[in-house]
TrEMBL record:
Residues 14-327 form the TOD1/MUCI70 glycosyltransferase-like domain. It holds the Pfam family TOD1_MUCI70. This is TOD1/MUCI70 glycosyltransferase-like domain-containing protein. It comes from the Eukaryota. Residues 379-400 have a biased composition (Basic residues).
Length: 410
């Protein structure tokens, strides 16, 4: 792990806005948790400067997780402050997924990496009644943290808080790896950081969508799949179009995609990447919860003021270190696996034939008399040949007539 933080272009000092008395005089969207920033405040947050103070959730209360909405127990807050290296974070709300245990984790990572799973009361009740959670509130390698007073009715929107604002809840962590609750981590976290951040000199890495790379296409796909109400998606896209959003084309190279596969986010917690996460969260807070639609707008606004880039790697690379599992409702409706067929025992060889039954009758002696059928006629002399048969075997002589000339003598 690098000994010093990476370079943060332009932005050096980032602080966050706290407001006890919220003003709801915003044009549209927003929430109490997000602080209802106005469109002017939104515009100012994209004007990258050396020192900035921005909205970044948790606007009420003196500390994230303490009377801010998305409240956490004090024991959890204290433990999270002790995480000063790498944190792997995930979340399951509404008991929507099974907790997947990471595999291939080194002993060093087990000792130095913080694994935190954020859950709600419903998920906690299931884990306790099923016996999967111990008295130490751990499920395998995961340290569970129960979220109280969630700020949104929609669990998917609440899930964006640990996904995008992990740097707010772990103020001393240097790196974070977010994975969706439906994923199983199968590669050591340090190997992932080395591959996608340290080797690339990047502070933010995310995979491209496996199929779509244009925001307009992504929006239509979300509408077709019923991911969010169509009117809200159309409003968001039209708003971005007025700000200058255009369909993806080769003119945007070296940018290779405008649409991420947001189930995995790899970050170093430096000011510029923290700002990007804050601004991305507030797009989700103001518009729809479909973060794939708002990603490129945040990225491009920051790029206009800095030379900061995001490592967007191929989705097939993501599939090398996480495995996607089914949601719980799908698992419950799946037919149980058929029992393995037991092969029939091998056929036994047929039994030997039984010996002939013994009889009390006396044995029959063979007869010494000769039957008429057994009499064979004795061989005798052959009869003499008759006329022609006898001559056919004799020597023929040429008959010579007097006065005749020999043909050969002529």
């Amino acid at each position: 792990m690098p000994k010093v933080p990476s370079y943060s272009p332009v932005l050096k000092n980032l602080t966050y806005i706290y407001e006890e008395n919220l003003s709801r005089k915003t044009e549209f969207g927003g929430s109490e948790f997000g602080g209802y920033p106005t469109l002017k405040q939104r515009s100012d947050s994209y004007d990258i400067r050396e020192s900035m103070s921005v909205h970044c959730g948790f606007v009420r209360g003196s500390k994230p997780g303490r009377n801010t909405g998305y409240d956490l127990d004090e024991i959890d807050l204290n433990d999270m402050e002790q995480c000063n290296g790498v944190v792997v974070a995930s979340a399951i709300f509404g008991n929507f997924d099974e907790i997947n245990q990471p595999r291939n984790i080194s002993d060093y990572s087990k000792e130095t990496v913080c694994f935190y799973m954020f859950i709600d009361d419903v998920t906690e009740a299931y884990l306790r009644t099923s016996g999967k959670m111990g008295s130490d509130r751990k499920v395998g390698i995961w340290r569970t943290v129960v979220v109280h007073n969630p700020p949104y009715m929609d669990g998917r929107r609440t899930g964006k808080i640990p996904k995008l604002l992990v740097h707010r809840m772990f103020p001393n962590a240097r790196f974070s790896l977010w994975i969706d609750g439906k994923l199983e981590l199968v590669v050591d976290p340090y190997q992932i950081l080395e591959r996608f951040l340290w080797r690339k000199n990047a502070t933010f890495a995310i995979s491209r969508h496996y199929k779509r790379f244009d925001v307009f296409t992504e929006a239509e796909a979300n509408k077709a799949a019923g991911k969010y109400d169509n009117a809200s998606i159309d409003f968001q896209v039209e708003f971005y179009k007025k700000e200058g959003l255009t369909p993806y084309s080769e003119e945007k190279l070296p940018i290779t995609s405008d649409v991420p596969e947001g189930c995995v986010i790899i970050r170093e917690h430096v000011p510029i990447s923290n700002l990007a996460a804050c601004l991305w969260f507030h797009e989700v807070d103001r518009f729809t919860s479909r973060d794939q639609i708002s990603f490129s707008t945040v990225r491009d606004h920051i790029r206009e003021k800095t030379n900061w880039t995001i490592n967007m790697f191929y989705d097939c690379e993501r599939r090398n270190f996480v495995v996607q599992k089914y949601h719980r409702d799908v698992l419950e409706h799946m037919a149980p696996p058929l029992p393995k067929a037991v092969p029939p025992p091998p056929l036994l060889p047929p039994p030997p034939p039984s010996p002939p039954a013994l009889s009390n009758e006396p044995p029959v002696k063979p007869s010494t008399e000769t039957s008429p059928e057994s009499i064979v006629k004795a061989p005798g002399k052959r009869p003499p040949r008759r006329g022609r048969d006898r001559r056919s075997g004799s020597r023929r002589h040429r008959k010579i007539v007097a006065g005749a000339r020999d043909i050969d003598s002529s």
